[in-house]
Structures are given as structure tokens and as C-alpha cells.
Design goal:
With 166 residues, the protein is α+β, with helices and mostly antiparallel strands. The protein has helices at residues 15-27, 68-75, 110-120, 157-165; strands at 7-8, 11-12, 31-37, 44-50, 52-53, 59-64, 78-83, 97-106, 133-148, 151-156. Helix 1 (15-27) packs across helix 4. The two termini are 30 Å apart.
């Protein structure tokens, strides 16, 4: 088993192929597992979250100030989101999945995100206007894409963005 994205001469081998496949999985996804870093211990804390993929490859999240993960990311914005649409299928480890790594920061333009978010998550209409809910953007710096057994690799954020914008 080899890593398609391992470094060769300072560049990632097959990065465009992996980046395109990673973006294809992200753009169709509406849910993932957010990992933040717990205050004090620094242990990772995972939460199920709804996602809104953006055309530049980032993902937007929407949650309450009461959410545990919001407290952690307000102290340390380093996060990751695992997107694994085949998680509960048999032989899930042979199926594609992607982890987006970066920093999650508040998104200042709330009004521009309401309609796209509601289109992706109609149930959010019940709480979209509540004042303690805010949008956050995971600014992707690095991507780990696993196509299945034998095809995987790290993708630089710039290569991933090129694939998203293509």
C-alpha cells in the first residue's frame, strides 16, 4: 500500500487527482464530524455538525454559542472536519473519506449565508434567526483524502482550492 500523495522532490505526487476527488466528496456533503481542542487538556473533542460547502473549498458551519465546540474554538480556532458519507456501510474503510484541516473563524457576512444554508438544511429554518446562532467558516489549510485502500494522501490547501475553483 502506498500513499498517492507522498512527497517526491518537495511536491505532492498526484495532488491534482486527489484534490479533485476530495473536493467532489466535500461539495456533495452536508454533514461531518468537527474536532476542536478542549480547553486545558488540549484533547480533541468531536461533534456532529451540518456543513455548507462553499465554492472556494471552505465549509461553513452554523451553531449556537451554547454548543460545547463553540467554546473550544473561541479559544483555539484550529479544527478539523471529517466527512465520511459511507461511515455506516459495510466495508466503510474501503470507501472515500476526507478530513479538512484549518482554522474556524466567525463568518461576518451572515446575510449572504442564510439562504444557501437553508437550501442545504431546511430544518434550520426553526432556529436560523435566533441571535445566539452564528456562522463559522473552516478555512482549509490542508486536506487528508483517502479514496480507499491504497490510494490516499495529504493535499496542500492551495491545490485543494484550485480543484474547488476549477
Amino acid at each position: 500500500m502506498t500513499e498517492s500523495g507522498e512527497k517526491e522532490g518537495g511536491a505532492l505526487r498526484n495532488a491534482p487527482h486527489l484534490a479533485s476527488a476530495a473536493w467532489a466528496l466535500v461539495r456533495e456533503s452536508r454533514r461531518g464530524m468537527l474536532a476542536t481542542l478542549m480547553k486545558g487538556s488540549g484533547f480533541p473533542y468531536g461533534s456532529l455538525v451540518d456543513l455548507l460547502p462553499r465554492e472556494d473549498g471552505d465549509v461553513v458551519l452554523f451553531f449556537s454559542s451554547l454548543a460545547e465546540h463553540q467554546h473550544y474554538l473561541s479559544r483555539d480556532p484550529r479544527t478539523s472536519v471529517l466527512i465520511a458519507p459511507y461511515l455506516f456501510e459495510e466495508n466503510a474503510l474501503a470507501k472515500p473519506r476526507v478530513t479538512l484541516v484549518g482554522r474556524t473563524e466567525p463568518e461576518p457576512d451572515r446575510s449572504a449565508l442564510i439562504q444557501p444554508y437553508l437550501a442545504a438544511h431546511p430544518a434550520a429554518g426553526h432556529y436560523i434567526e435566533l441571535p445566539d446562532f452564528k456562522f463559522y467558516r473552516l478555512q482549509v489549510e490542508k486536506v487528508r483524502y483517502i479514496a480507499g485502500f491504497g490510494e490516499m494522501g495529504w493535499i496542500d490547501g492551495a491545490d485543494y482550492r484550485l480543484a474547488a475553483l476549477a
